[in-house]
Write a structure and sequence with these properties.
This protein is mostly beta strands. Helices cover about 15% and strands about 35% of the residues. It is built from 11 helices and 47 strands. It is globular. The chain starts with a helix and ends in a 23-residue tail after the last strand.
Amino acid sequence: MKKISLLLALLVTLLLAACGGRSDPTPTPEPTPEPTTTPEEEATVPETDEVWARIQDAGEIVVGVSADYPPFEFYDDNFQIVGYDIALISEIADRLGLDLRIQDHVFAGLGNALQLGQIDVAISALSVTSEREAVVDFSNVYYIGEDAILGRPGEEYSINTPRDMAAFQIGVQKGSVYEDWIRDELVDTGLMPEDHLFVFADIKDAFDDLLEGRIDLIVLDQRPAEIAEATEQVEIVAQGLNRQRYAIAIPEGSSQLRQAINDTLTELQNEGFMADLAEEYLNIDAEDVLPIPPEPPVEPDPPPGGCVDGMAYVADLNLDDNNMTNPPQMAPGQPFRKGWRLQNIGTCTWDSAYALTYVNGNSRLARMGGTPVFVQGQVRPGEMYDFWADLVAPLVPGTYQAFWSMRNGNGILFGQRVWVGITVVAAPTPAPTQTPAADINFTVDETHIQQGECVTFAWSVENIQAVWFYPDGADYTKYPVTGQGTTTECPTQTTTYNLRVLKRDGSVETRQVTIYVAPAEGKPSIDRFTVSPSAITSGQCVEIRWEVSGNVTNVRIGRNESVLWNNAPLSGRLSDCPPNGTQTYYLEASGPGGTSRVQQNVSVVSPTAVPTDAPTAPPPTETPSAGVPPTIDLFSIVPTQITTGQCVNISWHVTGDASLVEIWRDNVVIMGPAGDSGSGQDCSTNQAGSYIYEITAENRAGSAVPRQETVFATDGGTEPYPAPLPGDGDASAYPGS
């Protein structure tokens, strides 16, 4: 888990005095040796704590956090840092009569910031370890938690490490420490596909899904797991893989500061304040909070040697968002540059191996195509450096906040987190109405909707060879329709739909209607809903994947009139094998603010019959044994509709006997050998058009199992697909009137 296993930067840092100012990069000089004293004289010397004295003089305590770890510290919908740890340190500061100033750092850099005097204390779900105690001191433990893993009774499990869970489908509660733990340990490391993690708004909904086989394991706190084992016909199959003993980190030797914090923690514990925090932020009843036993003494490791990385934010060079109160407005897909001025406050010199890099954001779209910005030349301790990132605004309207931080040559993040904030606005008014044509009628019942609502298109055309109905950026040849028809669409973002008509004289005319989608106030947001492939033969199955956010009380997955999964998790996947015909899959997400809905059609046709007089295929030649044939469990390209220059994220997972896995783009290998699982990014979509991504998995006998995904790139409205030339193909093969 990140909060347990990170801060590895402390293993390569020096123990520095923490009495300098927050921006002073100069190490404190060695003190003049004091005269030798006898034990009696030594006992009478009053203990001094320069950090505590500085805090009292300033009347303010500077606290470092890593605000990317709900429910302990995170940004809320108003871009304010909140959480269990924030509420706790706020109360401590108030009782000590101090103003509170919060600084947001990357987690791995908190120890360095503490040693450099950039912050006074650090609180960020920090576990006490001997490695950390070599360079910092800790307060008393203020929270202790332990995981438990639930499985189905009677089944055999062998789970001794987090890696042992990688082969299972796992349910967790949204915003819990265990969601982040599984992501850090298994998903982000490539050991487990992301769609094997099922995130539930209410963990109780996961119990039925576990017994019905939709998921394999549930990870949660020990005490609720014990209650569930007694009441829900589930069984604890492992526990203690993610023990948490959280304390506040303090500069080494700051005994008076440590004592003041410990005394306040004892008061809060005795008054029941800590139990109230656990109930409010961790969903743990007071009686379920694990007691904090006496902590056995930990022998600290010797302090390691080396220089210390540090970074402080100085100023925005452009696009000031006024602390996210007034983010600059951008058009969907608009390219822009963001600049920051940063200072090297550490003792290491930054060279070309150092980079400012994206770390996370308030949405999966917040990366905005950003790539690491490497240092040119050298930045010595105390010097400043200007970084510029080339970005592209997301296509979906909304407010985005993306966090960036420094990374050294060993891949370790450090320093304060800086951000870029923008608001993507939809087009305010519809495009001018096109001149009507006597033989083309193309209408829609609504052009302005809220996210989660649907519209119905209708069309009637005459004297045609073929007709296609499709959204902007899609390959129109895959969307043939009849001359008269209707369809219901539920766009999650502002989308232009096209009715393309190939007339009998060979000319082409395209009619367009834009549906403007406003973010739904209070309604759940459907961030992802894919059903692939969109056309199959009978007997084949589709994979449904989704992700929902916001205030959600229920998620429902269905096909036509059938409900496939009620009380589904907020994110997950589902396989379904539909009957013949056009099948409409839908997702409904309900909450106190209303219901959002999105749907997608799948065409299921009978396989082409083989003529009875067709020649019999020769028997296959014998091939060497190849073991279990490779199976592609996951091949995901996100997003599939982009503007030119925007990046896509690629994820894959292959099981079976695969000796070679490769990722291709338009028949060119871009990753390979790629390994059985992993993720990567491709930013080579510089021209408008379609890009075919493919994964192949070969076994020792040489047989390959391909799987494809198509990405459509537009340059701001240009249609990338040419009209068929008159006479191309057989017009009778096109549907029409």
